[in-house]
Amino acid sequence: SLKTDVTGYVAIDNTRSLTVLAFRGSSSVRNFVTDANFPATNTDICDTCTAHAGFWDSWVEARPGVMAALKTAAASHPGNRVVIVGHSLGGAIADLAAAEIRNSGVVADLYTYGAPRIAGSTLSNFISNQNKGGNFRATHKDDPVPRLPPVLLGFVHISPEYYISSANNVVPTPNDITKYAGSINLQGNSGDNPLKTDLSAHGWYFNAIGACGGGDFEFKN
Q1: Which residues partner with 18 through β-bridges?
Q2: For 77-98, how does the pLDDT look when each residue is reduced to its tens digit (9 = 90+)?
Q3: Catalytic annotation, pick one of 26, 27, 28, 88
Q4: Out of 35, 95, 142, 143, which one is annotated catalytic?
Q5: Between β-strands 108-113 and 81-87, what pairing exists: parallel, antiparallel or unpaired?
């Protein structure tokens, strides 16, 4: 996209009968400007629902193309289940996309990895309780990104959280993952060691999550 550089794709998984909508994490100056656009703004997802302005702008910019691509995929693969995924900034956009796609009547599962807080409690609780697909918000050790923007600014997470306690560069087992409920909880990523940050943890979710992305950073503004 031109304004926020939101980037993603829609793909068909014929083996599992899935239609996958995936959003990339921050990888350009425009992405980081989006991340830093903290003020809350109104949305059209639900009544009195506000969201992080940068994340909302990204979704609104992507929305026409995404909805059109999903409509095309549904026509060619009507039996597929929709899965929405994203890492970091992409996870925040995935949250908003899932809410709107579910509002259109589509059952969609949501998987995010290292996603930041996206919204006030009204919208976060709305997404958590849509009951039109599962929510799987994964966090890892002292990844700092899920601790932003601060709760003191009015931002909270969707629920539940799936907290991964295993070390970097180690494939987690089911015993390394703990489920915590609530839009604000002082366990999991928020409670592990709030004064400690580990950017490497942000890049390791079950594997090196950015390994396919290449090393180039886009400076266009």
Answers
A1: 13, 81
A2: 999 999 999 999 999 999 999 9
A3: 88
A4: 143
A5: parallel
